[in-house]
Specification:
five-stranded antiparallel sheet, alpha+beta, 17 strands, five-stranded mixed sheet, 19% strand, 586 residues
């Protein structure tokens, strides 16, 4: 459940809406449709089974009437007074002409009955001694042919009473279904006078069985399982004798050849003939499947149409939300831009309008905040510079006071001139940003004062490339490096003598400035104190550089005890007075 909940939270809004449509609309409707399909299928099957039962009853009645007529005709021949004298075997005083006359009468009588029976054929199997007997005759055949036939066993098992059999044709034609019975002598009923067979073409029976449901098999078979007629080929579904019932009131469901089927079997009027009907359940469901398939296609089409409509509608909603999200990502990336106005009064349209108003207000606040920030930076920069100027002024005035005590008028004049030059450059018409050229002149004025102070024990050299002199830098950036080189470097030596060198060059698109001295050098602890000390120093310079250049510019210190120290800064190339003016303006 946790994974499903997490997945649902992470999918798009459009996906959620469509999922809710499916779960809240299509899925319940689909379940209802499936239940309806099942109910319709069951009702349709029940109605179809009822129709099959009615059809079976009609076929049963038609076949039963036809077979009953043939059975009744066979009974007429059995008790007919004209047939019995002709078949008496002990009446030898009758000459051939009389016998032929009697058999001709029987033939005429049989022919008249055949005309009423629609393509039925009446055949007598009698003793071979009669002159009318012929193996190829359509009326009188040798009794010995019957003794050699397979169906004769069925007649014997039924004690000569009427029984339905399948007569095989000698000329290769289709076999015939026939009712056969023995004809007994009236003087001795234990003696067989002949056999009567009333046959009918299988096609006539098959025509009666063909009015069936598609896939249904209706057939007639004897009690022994001999197939008399069928509505389908012989390889269709057939019941075995054990599965057949004498009288099924309606179709029942069993498995035939591994397939579920509906079957019904009944014996016809006490005869040995069974009317059997078999229909696979798949054939019944085929009709209901077509109906359910049409309904399913209708539901599928409605579902697709619904999803298409909902997809279009949700796109009009989520599309604008997506644009709003992209605009917010643009703001997150620092690109303030408004969305195109949409003429819509819905909640999303109002949200977009409020978003544009918010962008305007945020942009206005950012402008105000930027101005305030720049003023704050300017104030901080001036405050940091004010920490340096009083410190240097205090030291210089102290030096002048010391010189006055010594009455060193010439030195005092030089120092005052150098200090005047220094502060003139420091003021720089109120600008906080100067060129490296101006910064070097300020450093030269400062070092002129320091050389006077230390009586020539300190030498100063400057080696700066010409191509960086017009680049900009916050004023009073290099002077603290020179002061630290003197105080913490050269003054720590025993003789107090040393050289301070200022270098500057362009490398990899950035400017490198360094101040090197050959003083006492610093340990790692001294380096840490130079950054973290409360007095003005490297931390002060790093902060000023960061405020101006907008990036962190660390002050690098390379020092070895007893050898000297080198302080390095690497700054971006900033040229022109417009940038400085813009900085001062902001």
């Amino acid at each position: 459940m946790g994974k499903i909940r997490e997945w649902f939270r992470n999918i798009s809004l459009r996906g959620k809406i469509l999922l809710l449509v499916v779960l809240g609309g299509l899925l319940p409707l689909g379940i209802v449709m499936m239940i309806s399909f099942y109910a319709i299928r069951m009702q349709t099957e029940e109605r179809l089974i009822d129709a099959l039962n009615q059809g079976y009853s009609q076929v049963y009645q038609a076949v039963s009437d036809r077979l009953s007529r043939l059975h009744n005709i066979s009974s007429l021949f059995a008790v007919n007074d004209m047939v019995s004298p002709a078949l008496r075997l002990d009446d030898r005083e009758m000459d051939v002409a009389e016998q032929l006359m009697l058999f001709e009468n029987i033939n005429s009588y049989a022919y008249g009955l055949e005309m009423t029976l629609d393509s039925s054929n009446i055949v007598f199997y009698i003793e071979d001694s009669y002159p009318v007997v012929n193996a190829r005759s359509n009326r009188y055949r040798p009794l010995t042919d019957a003794y050699g036939a397979q169906w004769y066993e069925s007649l014997q098992e039924n004690n000569g009473r009427p029984v339905w059999v399948l007569l095989e044709s000698d000329d290769g034609e289709k076999s015939q279904a026939a009712i056969v019975r023995e004809l007994w002598s009236q003087e001795d009923y234990s003696h067989t006078a002949g056999i009567l067979a009333i046959a009918m073409q299988q096609k006539n029976l098959e025509e009666m069985l063909r009015n069936s449901y598609e896939g249904q098999v209706i057939y007639l078979e004897t009690a022994e399982g001999v197939l008399l007629a069928s509505s389908q080929p012989e390889n269709a579904y057939h019941l075995c004798i054990a599965e057949r019932n004498v009288d099924d009131p309606k179709f029942r469901q069993i498995t035939v050849d591994g397939s579920p089927c509906y079957v019904r079997s009944c014996r016809i009027d006490g005869s040995n003939v069974y009317l059997v009907s078999v229909i696979p359940r798949q054939a019944i469901r085929k009709g209901t499947g077509i109906l359910n398939g049409n309904m399913g296609l209708l539901f599928l089409g409605a579902g697709i149409l619904m999803m298409a409509v909902m997809g279009t509608m949700t796109k009009s909603i989520t599309g604008r939300l997506k644009l709003l999200r992209e605009q917010m990502l643009q703001i997150q990336a620092g690109n303030m831009c408004k969305m195109e106005e949409v003429h819509s009064r819905d909640e999303i349209g109002q949200l977009i309008g409020n978003y544009n108003i918010m962008v305007d207000r945020v942009d206005e606040l950012l402008q105000k905040q930027y101005v305030m920030g720049q003023k704050k930076v300017e104030a901080e920069l001036k405050a940091l510079q004010s920490q340096i100027n009083p410190h240097f002024l205090y030291n210089t005035l102290d030096m002048i006071g010391w010189m006055a005590q010594k009455r060193e008028t010439e030195n005092i004049r030089s120092v005052v001139q150098a200090m005047s030059r220094f502060y003139r450059l420091t003021l720089s018409k109120g600008e906080d940003i100067v060129t490296i050229r101006d910064e070097m002149e300020m450093c030269e004025a400062y070092m002129e004062i320091q050389k006077r102070r230390y009586r020539g024990r300190i030498c100063y050299e400057a080696e700066v490339d010409e191509d960086i002199l017009d680049c900009l830098i916050p004023k009073i950036t290099l002077q603290p490096f020179l002061e630290n080189a003197i105080i913490h470097g050269i003054n720590e030596k025993s003789d107090g003598r040393g050289v301070v060198i200022l270098n500057g060059w362009m490398e990899d698109g950035r400017i490198t400035l360094s101040v090197t001295d050959d003083g006492e050098g610093m340990t790692e602890d001294d380096k840490r104190k130079s950054h973290e000390g409360s007095h003005y120093g490297l931390k002060n310079i790093e902060h000023r550089l960061e405020l101006f250049f907008g990036e962190k510019i660390p002050v690098q210190i390379e020092s070895s005890p007893g050898i000297g120290t080198c302080v390095i800064i690497i700054i971006p190339v900033t040229t022109g007075t417009e940038e400085a003016k813009e900085y001062e303006k902001e």
